[in-house]
Design brief:
The protein is mainly alpha-helical. It contains nine helices and no strands.
């Protein structure tokens, strides 16, 4: 089990290490050969204005910041899909709320074996943590020498340890999405500033202003602003969405764990009275 977990962790780390440079290279290729295709511009020259209505050419005019922003956008989308699949796997095979409800019912009716079987069928991170608490509870059920409070603490400890083992895989790569949410805005602002510098430089030329340079500078400023803000907005939404999902998973674990420990404490209390 530990070997499988280590292998999975290595694969996920390799996924990040490979994905980022591949996406960056792909973004620069798209910028140079798709957006910068001469067919997108008047006279077949990327130096000229884009053909009216040709959005590929318009985006190309955003300058060298565009492929960086495209890289950030693609990374947000890729890691959002990766996180969605991971969290879906962590929930398990069936409806999570129904699973927790069934486990609580089995625990309340002293059917710990059936609750463990339900965890085996459910699979996923939540089921693994709850199963750890159930198995510990089942072992301690026949221990009449251990103090009831120590039994409860032992079950809580096992569930906390199991949770700590599962949380890194659940929260992994969220920091990348959160970082992109901040970086995208700054990169968009940088592109805006560079574009405005070019626009004012065109206005400052002697005689008539360079209309093409002026238009390119303004286009660069506006396009980078739009890409930066749009990417940042998507990253923020994705980050908040996934943190909410993770909170729901942890709440399900806490809910089942509370039921297990309360039932154990109540059972031991009755045994002491009898």
């Amino acid at each position: 089990m530990k070997n499988n977990s280590a292998l999975l962790a290595n694969l996920k780390s390799g996924f990040v290490a490979v994905t980022i440079p591949v996406v960056v290279i792909l973004s620069f290729v798209i910028y140079q050969f798709m957006l910068g295709n001469p067919d997108n511009f008047q006279g077949g020259d990327p130096v000229n204005h884009p053909i009216p209505g040709n959005y590929l050419g318009i985006i190309y005019k955003g300058g060298f910041i565009v492929p960086i922003l495209l890289s950030l956008l693609f990374l947000v989308l890729i890691f959002a899909v990766e996180r969605f699949l991971t969290l879906h796997s962590a929930k398990g095979n069936n409806n999570l709320r129904l699973f927790v409800s069934n486990v609580k019912e089995f625990v309340n009716t002293n059917q710990l074996e059936k609750a463990i079987v339900a965890c085996d069928h459910q699979k996923g991170s939540v089921a693994s943590v709850i199963k750890a608490g159930l198995e510990k509870s089942l072992i301690l059920e026949k221990n009449y020498e251990l103090d009831p409070e120590k039994k409860v603490l032992s079950v809580k400890k096992d569930m906390e340890e199991a949770t700590q083992l599962e949380l890194p895989s659940i929260e992994k790569n969220l920091v990348i999405i959160a970082t992109i949410a901040s970086i995208a805005t700054l990169m968009g602002l940088l592109g805006t500033v560079l574009g405005m510098i070019k626009a004012f430089a065109a206005l400052a030329t002697a005689g008539a202003p360079d209309a093409v340079a002026l238009a390119n500078g303004i286009s660069e400023a506006l396009i980078n602003t739009a890409l930066g803000i749009g990417t940042s907005a998507i990253a923020i939404v994705m980050y908040n969405f996934f943190t909410t999902k993770i909170d729901a998973l942890i709440h399900s674990i806490d809910e089942a764990g509370y039921t297990i420990t309360q039932k154990m404490a109540l059972r031991d209390h009755h045994q002491l009275i009898n």
